[in-house]
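Sorry, explain these tokens?

***
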Amino acid sequence: MRLLLVEDTEDVAEAIVASFVHRGDAIDWVDTVEGAGDMLAVNDYEVVILDINLPDGEGTEVLRRLRRQRKPTPVLMLTARMAVEDRVAALDIGADDYLVKPFDLRELQARVRALGRRAGPDRSGVIEFGSLALDPAGRVASCGGAPLQLTRREFSLLEALMANRSRVMPKERLFDRMFSMDEEEVGLNAIETYVARLRRKLEGSGVAIRTLRGLGYQLVRVD
């Protein structure tokens, strides 16, 4: 998943970033309202994790701007405010969920995954295509019931292709889902490398990664 974290408490932000990177997600981190606006202007995110109290304003400003622009990006608000009125207000202006600090990182990850699933058909959490099954929560993938041994990046690539199965995924979109803006040393051609590695591991599965020159990649069933 490609995520944006807007959080000004450094140790909290670092813990969140580390937890999602460990899962194989790409996550960008900024600590101001202005920084959030800049990132949202040039990137599309599957979920935004948004703190309410920021140095140059409130996270609700970012949320209002998103909704005025008719962007449906799911937003999870982080707040230290316990009052029901504050949480209701955030939901009323367009937040999709909220989490009160302090929180368990496992719960944050579960809520983010749930928000990411809302836009797709895989509401149960497990994605299936042919003989392949992928469980984003458990970070496991299998073929015909046998586990697939995938690296973190390979799992992230397969997750993106499975979530968009039978649709063509441009190389640029896959890159955006797999790498954050901090990983500037990684080039777009890295996608070709990971596709080649994953393609070898899918041999004999009845599912293959099809290359459409100039368009991107497509996960398809094969005989």
Remarks:
- The two ends are 30 Å apart (CA to CA).
- Residues 127-221 form a domain with the Arc Repressor Mutant, subunit A fold (CATH 1.10.10.10).
